[in-house]
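Researcher: Good morning. I'm working through a list of sequences from a screen, and I'd like to move beyond sequence-only analysis. For each chain I'm collecting a predicted structure so we can compare shapes side by side. This is the next one on the list. No need for commentary yet; just the structure.
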Amino acid sequence: MVPLNIYNMQVTNITTTSATISWNTNTLPSTSVSSVVSYGITTGYGKSVSDNSTGLHNVNISGLSSGTTYDYQIQSTISGIPPALYTGSFTTAALPLLPPPSPTKVILISLPNPSDVGQSVFFGVSVIATKLNGIPTGTVTLMDGNTPIGTSTLDKLGLTSFNISTLTSGSHNITAVYNGGGNFLTSTSNIVVQKVDYDTKTSLTSNNNPSTLGQSVMFTATVTGVGGPTGTVVFRDGLAVLGSSSLTSGKATYTTSGLPAGSHSITASYNGDSNNDPSVSNVVVQVVNSKNKATITLSSNNNPSVYGQSVTFTATVSPSAATGTVQFQIDGTNFGSAVNVSGGKAVSGSTTTLSIGSHNITAVYSGDSTYGGSSATLVQKVKSKTVCNWPSKPNPCNWGQPCIFNIQIGCQSPGTGNPTGTVTFYDGSNSLGSCSLSGNGTASFSIGNLMIGSHNISFTYSGDDNDSGSTSAVVTQTVNPVNTVTSISSSTSTSVFGQSVTFTAGVTPNTATGTFTFKDGTKTLGTAALSGGSAAFSINSLAVGSHSITAVYGGDTNDNGSTSSSINQTVNKASTAIALSSPASSAKLGAAVTFTVTVNAVSPSAGTPTGIVTFKNGTTTLGTATLSNGKATFSTSSLPVGIDSITAVYGGDSNFSSSTSNNVSLTITK
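Model: Good morning. C-alpha cells for this chain:
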C-alpha cells in the first residue's frame, strides 16, 4: 500500500485577521480523507479546523490578530494507513499606524430668538474637526442646561438640526454636545441663551368719538398676555407721542382735551416685560369737530301733487335739541318768513299755486350757538289733473261677440297736451284688462267674454310723469243672448203611410245647446237634443195627407230660441199586395169550397190593412169578407160545373190602396 503524503502546501490570502491554508494529498478522488488543521501562536496550537475533501484541500481560518506569527500543523488520515503530517508558520498583516484622535468644535445657532411660547425654534448645529482632515460623524445631543431635549445624527457634511416648540417662558441656556465618533473627540458648543416670551395683544378705544374741539377724550389701552402684563403703554397721534401710562390690571389710560380739530390716528404701543412681547394696538381715528353740525331732512305732504292741490313742507333738524330757524325756498326764492325750529321740526306755510312741472324746494337751517347750519333739498312734482271721459256709451252686444269700449283722457286747464300711459278697465271690482293710450289720449279696448246681463264698467288711468291718475264714471254694458236661426229638412218630402221619415233640424250658431221640438202644425211630434248644432227626429206614424212640419229650438243660457220655416210633408196611401189561395184545384158540384186571402202593405210602408175583400167568379160577385189581421176567408157551394176563375178584390181603407189578387182556377164536376 502506498503511504499517504502531503505536498504543495501553501498559505495565501493573508490579511490582518485571516488566511487560507491549502495542500494536496496523493489519494484517489473516491478515497475518503479526514484532515485537521491546528493553529496557534505557539506549537501548542489551541485551535483547529476540520476538512474532509480529497486531492486539493483548502481551509480558511479567521479571527486572527494583526502582525502576529501563527504555527500550524496539517494532519491527513486514511483508514488503515498511517497519517501524514506537515507543520509550518505564517505571519498576519500588520495594521497601518493611525494619527491620534482629532479635537472637534461645535457651533450652535437658533432662529428666531427671542421666540414665543409654543413657537417652533430652529437650532442648527455644525461639528468641525480642528486638527485632522475629514468630517466628524456620529450624534449630537441638544441640552437645555443639564437636561437633554433631543438627539440627532450628523449628515455627511457634519451638520444637523432640531426644531423645538416645547420651551417654556423664560431664558434657556441651550448647548449642543457632540458625542464623538471614529477618530474625532467629543466637544460642547457655545451657549445660546434662548429667550421665550408670550405674544401680547393691545386694543385701544375712545370714550368720545367724534368729539368737539376742547372736549375731554379718554383713550383706554387693554393689553392681554401671560401672568398679567406689566410695564408702560405709549399713546401716539400718528408719530407724535401724546403721553404714556403704566399698566394696572392690564389697562392703561390717557386723557386729553388738547386735540386740534380734524382727524387723528391714535395708537397705543406696549413696551413689553420679561415674559410678554411688545405689541401695537389698532388705530382709532379720533374725529374732533370744530363745532357740531346739525343735519336736516326735508319732506312734502303731497309729492307728486296735482295742480291746485295744497302742499306743505316740513324740515326735520337733528339733534332735536337744536334751535334756530329754517328758511324755505321755492326755486331759489324765499317762501314766507323764516320758521322757528321747535322739537327738531319746522313747518312751512301751505301753497296751492305751484305751476305744473318740477320745483326745487330748499330748507336752510340757520344753526345756533351749539350746532352748525345745514340745508336740504327736494324736487316737488306738480302734475296736471286729468279727466276720464266716455265719448259715447257702449252699445249692447251679444254674448260671444266683442264688446268695444272707446275712452279718452283729457287734462284740466291749465294742463295741456295728451296724457300717456295705461288704462285699466273694470267690471265692478274685477279687472278686465289694460291697454295703452294712443298719441291723442284715446284708447279702444275690446273684450268678448262678458256674461249675459248688465255690467258696471269703469276704467282707471294710471298717470304719467306730467299727468295725474284718475277714474272714470261707471257705465252700463248690456250683454244679450245670441239670436239663433233654426232650419229643418226632410229625408223625403213625399212618403206613404207607415214609411219612416227623418226630419233634421239645425241651428246657428252651432255652439248653441239644448233641445229641438218637432211639430206637425201645433201638434208636437217629439223632441231631440242638439249635438254640434243639429238634431234628427224620425217618425213612421204620420197620417195620410199633407202635414206642415216645423222645428222649434228652445234656447239656452246664452242663445235665444227660434222656430224654423215650415216644410210640407205629403203622406200618400200605401200600396197593398193581395194573395188568394184554394185548398184544392177541383170539387164536386154542390160541395163547399173555402178560399183564403192575405193582404199586406208594400214596402216602404208598414202596418196591417183593414176593410172588405170581395170574391168574384169572373165578373160575378160571389160574396165578401172582412179582413182580420190582414186575412179573410170565404166559403161557397154554389159554383157552377166547369172551370171557374176566382179572384179577390181588396177595396182599400183610409191608409191603404185597393188591389186585386191573382186568379185561382177551380174545376167543378158533376
